[in-house]
Amino acid sequence: MRRLARLNAPAVLARLPDFVAAASESARAGGLGPRKVGSVELAVEEAVTNICKYAGQDQPADIALACFADDALFAVEISDDGKPFDMTAQPDPDVTAGLEQRPLGGLGVFLIKKAADAVRYERRDGRNRLRLEFRLPSRR
Amino acid sequence: MELTKTGLPDGVVTLALKGRLDAGTSAQAEAAIQDFLGAGGGKLILDLAGLDYISSAGLRVLLVANKAMRRKAGALALCGAQGNVREVLEVSGFTTLFLMADTPEQALAALRPA
């Protein structure tokens, strides 16, 4: 796959727009249509927000984002050196619960799983490594 | 994000949201809804026709508003959601938690007592 973008920055919410913009521009350059670009922005916003809010310990975690594409796939890899967190192991929220039973949080991870066509996670070399894949439209 | 507030007959207020309702703009929307609730509440229509992006931060604002309206015996309707915004509302189950309408006029009719 060819690399389209790379961005390293501390996990602070003030930098969230930079991560979203880098992924969004790459998604367009990689050949995704507008709806799918929106899905990329959503997945990246949710993933980076979670890292900013929960991964840091004494100081904000370090985030490295990279985007790749080939003829069939667009992929965003987001790694951080914060607390281990495997979002793929999180149970889905009950989206059929009534208003009173609905917690205010917990939808971010669910939206990542829904927005991306595939989500992979591994903890390696002291970093959380999340890979979000989006299928490109077929060229037939 | 742009917010436009319009007063309708019978004390109904429409708040039109344009642009993106995300981690960066959700506080602005929440403040506008809190203003409405602080002014006594009542019936509120959130017009999402101009909204082209919503994340969980935006969903949270909608959910907080819905719960607050329920407590205050007010009423809230969403209208005009389309594209990715509609899709996110659907997968999150929000289309069954909220009164949904296509247009502000339909939302107004749905909020009127029969």
Brief synopsis:
The complex is a heterodimer of chains A (140) and B (114). Chain A has 140 residues and is of the alpha+beta class.
Notes on the protein architecture:
The complex is a heterodimer of chains A (140) and B (114). With 140 residues, chain A is of the alpha+beta class. Chain A is built from three helices and five strands, in the order βααββαββ. In chain A, strand 2 and strand 3 form a beta hairpin. Chain A is globular, with a radius of gyration of 15 Å. Chain A starts with a strand and ends in a 5-residue tail after the last strand. Chain B is α/β, with parallel strands linked by helices. Helix content of chain B is 44%, strand content 32%. Chain B has helices at 26-38, 56-71, 83-91, 94-97, 104-111, and strands spanning 2-7, 12-21, 43-54, 75-79, 99-101. Chain B has a five-stranded mixed β-sheet, sandwiched between helices. In chain B, helix 1 (26-38) runs parallel beside helix 2 (56-71). Classes of the chains: A alpha+beta (140), B alpha/beta (114).
Architecture of the domain at 1-78 in chain B in CATH? 2-Layer Sandwich
Secondary structural class of chain A: alpha+beta
**Quaternary organization:** heterodimer
Order of helices and strands of chain B: EEHEHEHHEH
Total strand count of chain B, please?
A: 5
Question: Which percent band covers the strand fraction of chain A?
Answer: 25-35%
